[in-house]
Amino acid sequence: MSAATPSAQLTAYAPRVRVRRGISVGFMVIALLAITVSILMLGALIVEIAVDGAARLFTDGGAVSVEARDGSIVSDLPTPEGMGWLSWVLPIAILLPFVGPRVVHSVAHGVVHGVPRVAERLMGLAVVAPVAVFLHILYVRFESAYFIEYAKAVDIDGATGNVLQLFGEASGFQVVRLVIMGIGLPLALLLMGWFWSHRMRKPSLLIPAILIGAWIVYLFMDPWFLSSYPSRSPSGAGIFSAVTGTFYMMTITAAIAFPLGVGAAVYLEEYARRNWFSRMIQVNISNLAGVPSIIYGLLGLQVFVRVLEFERSVLAGACTMALLVMPIIIVSAQEALRTVPPSMREAAYAVGATRWQVVRHHVLPYAFGGMLTGNILAMSRAIGETAPLIAIGALTFIAFLADSPTDDFTVMPIQIYNWVARPQAGFHEIAASAIIVLMVILLLMNAAAIIMRQRTRTDW
Amino acid sequence: MARNFFTVMRSSAPSSTAARPSSSSRSTAPPPPNMKEAPAAGVGVHLDPSLEAVRHDLTEDIEMALELREVSAFYGTFQAVDKISLPIPKNRVTALIGPSGCGKSTLLRCLNRMNDLIPGARVEGEIRFEERNLIDPTVDAVEVRRRIGMVFQKPNPFPKSIYENVAFGARINGYSGDMDRLVEDALRRAALWDEVKDELDKSGLALSGGQQQRLCIARAIAVQPEIILMDEPASALDPVATLKIEDLMRELAEHYTIVVVTHNMQQAGRVSDYTAFLLAGEERVGRLVEFGPTQEIFTNPLDQRTEDYITGRYG
Lengths: 460, 315
Ligand SMILES: Nc1ncnc2c1ncn2[C@@H]1O[C@H](COP(=O)(O)OP(=O)(O)OP(=O)(O)O)[C@@H](O)[C@H]1O
Ligand SMILES: [Mg+2]
What we know:
heterodimer; A: MetI-like fold; 2 domains; 3-stranded antiparallel beta sheet; 3 strands; 2% strand; B: alpha/beta; Rossmann fold; 8-stranded mixed beta sheet; 12 helices; 12 strands; binds adenosine-5'-triphosphate; binds magnesium ion
């Protein structure tokens, strides 16, 4: 009986450890940083709102200009002693305590986990740089407040005039700023730190690069651009209604397309028998993904706008977009489902699970990250779609916010299309700005998808 | 009822060994040398001459957990297993041995309707389980799988906590008792409790291969099945973990019926009470060659091919 001893007997353990550490030092540092930044930012905004003269400011180093009510710019205000250099020294001084431990940690982390130190440090800088820039801006804004006071004191005409406008027509501006500066950026930093301080498969500068890009765009852009409605004059026009319309429509689109798409994928992968019928459905879904989007627009025009009488509303647009992205969502969800190994399903069946229990407790949770990723990518496709919305008649001049799904609406690509089509050069310039904003949103969405894919991957 | 079916294979052979072959004797007298040359005239009786399956006397009067009658399995048009008739004695360990590709896993998966999950797979024949034919489509496969658990060749814990891995089966089956105790009990019986009791929240995937396999065993016994099917449960394990699992199988056999597929002859000899030897011919269709008490199969095989296989001379 010296019989067949499988050599496999000695191959022993195949440990497949999934890295899931608790909260790391890096995470806490980043979290602290992000919380501090949030508080600082909110504080800055409160100061800005509180100081009477937070007029329309153009910050340029230490020099400040004030726009008077008649539109004339009063510049060349005398600079108080030390203001120029202080605006940079102060932020750096504030940052040092953060940067110190950060670098120490990154070195230690590099030693322990073998991540190249240089890359770690570069990423550390990437985290810190936008914060430094922000603090600089923050400081300049404090300065500006001082200048407003100064301007009032020396009685420059109209220096207080814009206060009314700030709290009047354009108060949406503060909300946008509050969201972007006070919540968006700190969250982005938090996310980045979380993502980065846990070991990534491949350290990447992508996320910091995108964030910095967003920052630069924000710095160079007149913030009013984000918070103004379309206007007859290029200098007064903004994309507020287009941005909000886009988000409004995308939310409804996702709410329709994601459950339906995931449901269809689950049906096709887990329930449908492999027969001619399911094969036909499968082939058609793949074909639908390739149908030109204008066709969806015409379909939406007939079905949603006319037959169902949704009119040219957000809802009609969202339904059309949902149809458009559904094939993408279905196919990517199917792929996510296929990454769940059959052995997981067998394991669940073997303890007496029903098909639904297997799907509900195992297949869906394990594939969810992948599905979400696919959904975000599908949304980033939809966000740039123009043709179907033109077909269903989305408007381009919307000077109010949609407050119900049946309101008229516009979205960013349509606004851009409209501006580009105008003869005046000024509109072409703001179209370019709008394109940059759209691109930043797209990049952020794709970055979120990448992060999600990395984070939710399971090593089977 | 259970006995009727096997009266066919009553034989004139002396029942030399005691009731539990594994316990009593490795030292049975060697069989007369001519036995293998002329099996038909000797101890076993061919159930069906064309299949050339030979059976030993069961040596003990024992209840059957399952009775396979002419079970054939197909993958599409390919027949993997041909008309296998086999009893699975209750509260004993039955080993399925045979060369790779002879249909051991296929046969095992027939026993708890796991083949239902493979598109195109089909099973014919009859598997008696408590007066019912569990292959029958009207029998609820979910119920069958709850009562006939399975441990797979490759450890496949869920990517969830150790606790959840064990509790899942009980929970979906509506267990309303003390879940913590059930989990602890299952892990203790699977000889894993001491290693993981402080980190039940840890992912099941973060365990070593051997620990994962024991976790899968704990998961299988937590639903308190009547029969546990194990497909080469130790094939990826080191000798220490293998021994732990073998001890475990012997312990489990007090309460459960176990069917184990193994390539390791010593292991089959150590853990099993009964052994079935399967072989695939030229056309790759698996057939039963010999079934009987492990003791008999190993010391006194009736078929030359069985002897060749267990002594490692096969092929
Ligand atoms: N899902 C499947 N589809 C088609 N054929 C299959 C499938 N699974 C197994 N087979 C075939 O059925 C036959 C028996 O396979 P099975 O897995 O039962 O062998 P086995 O005895 O368990 O082998 P091993 O000892 O290598 O695990 C083989 O010829 C194999 O190719
Ligand atoms: Mg096998």
